[in-house]
Amino acid sequence: MRLRNKPWAVKLVQEHPESVLDRPDPEKQIDWSQRFADCSRPLEIEVGSGKGHFITTLAEQNPDKNFVALELQVTAAGMILRTKLEKKLDNLQILCADAADITAFFAANSADTLYLNFSDPWPKTKHEKRRLTYKTFLEKYKKILKPGGQIEFKTDNSGLFSYSVASMNNYGMHFDFVSVDLHHENEEIVAKNIETEYEHKFAAKGNPIYALHADFGVE
Ligand code: SAM
């Protein structure tokens, strides 16, 4: 999804370097201790946050954890930033960058959970390598996640879901939770779920939402 360029969003990002890392140099390490009050707290990352409803809600509900919204588009980063400022979310940082460089931005074994929500499906076989659950991405996620750290993935796209299950399974990942209709799981699961913008749109059309939680095991 490409968002139409919003000049206000670009300007807001430029005005808030303390909250947004705007296309940082992947050759330089990021010192997260300068950006979070307490780096000993659990770290959770959403890859491809879009307009940010999911990650800003999660950050609001969990003031005892640190969150990073990793998003390619600067307009989307500006929209997440606007909510972060409105809600005064000191535990949320925005990283405007390509997930392909994720291992440059986070230390090995530093993240507890990684969220992939409604990632672009890239349905053509020739674009397989761009899917955020392709094996080269899994390899990178494995590096930055702590042992036992989880990937939580949601999509309405059955093709991307079955591809991702196979890709994770081939990578030797363990599945802790799998649903082919998340919105009709038991009450507790449904109540805990935070909808993303895409999820809201597709669920309203009656599409089932697929979800899984998986980990790389503890070596
Ligand atoms: N997660 C949001 C939701 O569920 O509403 C947005 C979903 S949208 C289909 C996918 C988002 O991922 C877009 O905002 C896009 O810019 C971002 N994205 C795609 N590829 C990315 C990458 N390689 N690195 C970071 N973000 C990426």
TrEMBL record:
<dbReference type="InterPro" id="IPR003358">
    <property type="entry name" value="tRNA_(Gua-N-7)_MeTrfase_Trmb"/>
</dbReference>
<comment type="similarity">
    <text>Belongs to the class I-like SAM-binding methyltransferase superfamily. TrmB family.</text>
</comment>
<dbReference type="InterPro" id="IPR055361">
    <property type="entry name" value="tRNA_methyltr_TrmB_bact"/>
</dbReference>
<keyword id="KW-0489">Methyltransferase</keyword>
<feature type="binding site">
    <location>
        <position position="120"/>
    </location>
    <ligand>
        <name>S-adenosyl-L-methionine</name>
    </ligand>
</feature>
<keyword id="KW-0819">tRNA processing</keyword>
<feature type="binding site">
    <location>
        <begin position="196"/>
        <end position="199"/>
    </location>
    <ligand>
        <name>substrate</name>
    </ligand>
</feature>
<dbReference type="Pfam" id="PF02390">
    <property type="entry name" value="Methyltransf_4"/>
</dbReference>
<dbReference type="GO" id="GO:0008176">
    <property type="term" value="F:tRNA (guanine(46)-N7)-methyltransferase activity"/>
</dbReference>
<keyword id="KW-0808">Transferase</keyword>
<dbReference type="GO" id="GO:0043527">
    <property type="term" value="C:tRNA methyltransferase complex"/>
</dbReference>
<keyword id="KW-0949">S-adenosyl-L-methionine</keyword>
<feature type="region of interest" description="Interaction with RNA">
    <location>
        <begin position="126"/>
        <end position="131"/>
    </location>
</feature>
<comment type="function">
    <text>Catalyzes the formation of N(7)-methylguanine at position 46 (m7G46) in tRNA.</text>
</comment>
<feature type="binding site">
    <location>
        <position position="156"/>
    </location>
    <ligand>
        <name>substrate</name>
    </ligand>
</feature>
<feature type="binding site">
    <location>
        <position position="71"/>
    </location>
    <ligand>
        <name>S-adenosyl-L-methionine</name>
    </ligand>
</feature>
<dbReference type="InterPro" id="IPR029063">
    <property type="entry name" value="SAM-dependent_MTases_sf"/>
</dbReference>
<comment type="pathway">
    <text>tRNA modification; N(7)-methylguanine-tRNA biosynthesis.</text>
</comment>
<feature type="binding site">
    <location>
        <position position="46"/>
    </location>
    <ligand>
        <name>S-adenosyl-L-methionine</name>
    </ligand>
</feature>
<feature type="binding site">
    <location>
        <position position="98"/>
    </location>
    <ligand>
        <name>S-adenosyl-L-methionine</name>
    </ligand>
</feature>
<protein>
    <recommendedName>
        <fullName>tRNA (guanine-N(7)-)-methyltransferase</fullName>
        <ecNumber>2.1.1.33</ecNumber>
    </recommendedName>
</protein>
<feature type="binding site">
    <location>
        <position position="124"/>
    </location>
    <ligand>
        <name>substrate</name>
    </ligand>
</feature>
